[in-house]
Write a structure and sequence with these properties.
The protein is an all-alpha fold and 111 residues long. It has a domain of 61 residues. It has five helices and no strands. It starts with 11 loop residues before the first helix and ends in a 14-residue tail after the last helix.
Length: 111
């Protein structure tokens, strides 16, 4: 439920963001973090349409979009770091042993 409009939110990301914005701390941080954002007119128009469709303010939509992009970038960096520490030989040994001595489980069949 959107705190401002009291309507159900279509996207769980917006729902999480809506819960986070409750309280004075959010308001104080938002006041201190204003930036001028220059968007292409067509991009701004599309963002406004999507925000309206989702039932959220344009500012909230942009905040969530930036958060999602940052999350995607951090996830990529995390997996790249894990890959560097990985050992292909050990992984192959683990996979080779997987399932040995265990009977097949119903639903594991192929086809």
């Amino acid at each position: 439920m959107c705190a401002t409009s009291r309507r159900p939110l279509a996207n769980s990301v917006f729902a999480c963001y809506d819960r986070l914005k409750c309280g004075r701390r959010f308001d104080d941080e938002m006041r201190r973090s204003n930036v001028a954002l220059r968007l292409q007119a067509s991009l701004l128009d599309e963002a406004r349409r999507v925000a309206e469709t989702e039932g959220v303010a344009l500012n909230q939509f942009i905040n969530v979009a930036v958060a999602e992009k940052l999350s995607a970038l951090r996830t990529e960096q995390y997996f790249l770091g894990r890959a560097e520490r990985g050992d292909v030989g050990k992984a192959k040994l683990i996979l080779k042993k997987a399932g040995r001595g265990n009977p097949a489980v119903r639903g594991d069949e192929l086809g």
